[in-house]
Amino acid sequence: MTEQTPTIGILGPGAVGGALAVPLAEAGLDVVCIARPATAAAITSQGLSLRHGSGVRTVRLRAVEGLEETVDLLLVTVKATGLDDALGRIEATPSVVLPLLNGLEHVDTIRSRLDGRVLAGSIGKLEAYRDSPTEVVQTTSAPLITIFPEDGAAHLLSEAGLDVRVGESEQAVLWEKTVRLAPLAAATAITQKALGQLRTDSTWRSTLSAAVAEACAVAAADGVILDEGAQWEILDTMPASVTTSTARDAAAGRPTELDAILGAVVRAAKRLEVRAPTLDRLLAEAEDACRAQSH
Fold it and tell me: For 253-266, what is each residue's pLDDT tens digit?
């Protein structure tokens, strides 16, 4: 990192990107958003706002269609469905790249497209959605960012007031969230029900329990030991209103991250020769539900 004010690029100032860009700009960092032309123009004109509860915070920051300058840290916060297009907007080499996407396979994709040091990262405890190109609504408390290896990025983000921890390994960072998100993404897309409704439905709770156990088994075969009970403790303590972006996108007839999240787990299971019949079934049913919603 440079001794001058660090510059942080936000590739995709949507729900996750907006929820991070506002506090980073408020902390005095030089933040530049990289977005599609209409979104970049709107942010340049109106600023970027983050609504949390009854409060709204608005910051003025730079927004560009393509990144032509070297940034100290590039946060990749697009959805998996928009990753290929977004990476085409990066014309200069970032010093460090931190992807905060869902799933397992995107880090390799980014490394194949961008020079510079690409870390592994995930973001949890955050539910947010974009209400307009310039306004993000955050419905949960402060997010938790997990990074591996540390490489200075964790310190930079922590100094800016974000909650950051360093993971045990790259695979651990990617798997820890995925083992519970993959079943939940499918279940919410199929039923269009929130987590609280799924938790109290005996059939769905049993299905999710089996799916989480299978996902943990796949992670173990990939070298990451995760406790199924601990994952359920997280699901049981999350707000009942929590849903997933996969469910929201499916309901709106938009492309979803289902393949990047659950599809990646199913592919890992096949590669590692781990039986995962519940995950296979959920993937097929969720794909059918998404197709039906898109018509």
Answer: 999 999 999 999 99
Mean pLDDT of 86-97: 96
CB 208 within 8 A of CB 184: yes
Tokens 């999350």 locate to: 238
* Residue 164 phi, psi dihedral angles, 5° rounding: -130, 140
Helices (H), ranges, 125-200: 153-159, 170-191, 195-200
* Among 116, 98, 131, residue whose Cα is nearest residue 24: 98
**Alpha-carbon torsion (145, 148, 153, 155), positive or negative:** positive
Residue 162 confidence (pLDDT) above 90: yes
User: Average of pLDDT values for 203-211?
Assistant: 97
Helices (H), 33-79: 37-46
Q: What is the dihedral of CA 26, 30, 35, 37, to 10 degrees?
A: 100
Residues constituting the chain:
295
> What pTM was estimated for this model as a whole?
0.95
Token pair for 75: 């946060």
Rg, the chain, Cα only: 19
CB 219 within 8 A of CB 179: yes
Average pLDDT over residues 256-284: 98
Q: Are 155 and 101 in contact (CB under 8 A)?
A: no
* Pairwise CA distance, residues 259 & 263, whole Å: 4
Residue type, 155: H
The pLDDT tens digits for 21-68 are 999 999 999 999 999 999 999 999 999 999 999 999 999 999 999 999
Confidence at residue 288, expressed as pLDDT on a 0 to 100 scale: 96
Residue 110: which of 260, 268, 271, 6 has the closest Cα?
260
Q: CA-to-CA distance for 212 and 210, rounded, in angstroms?
A: 6
| Degrees, nearest 5: CA angle 143-184-107 | 60
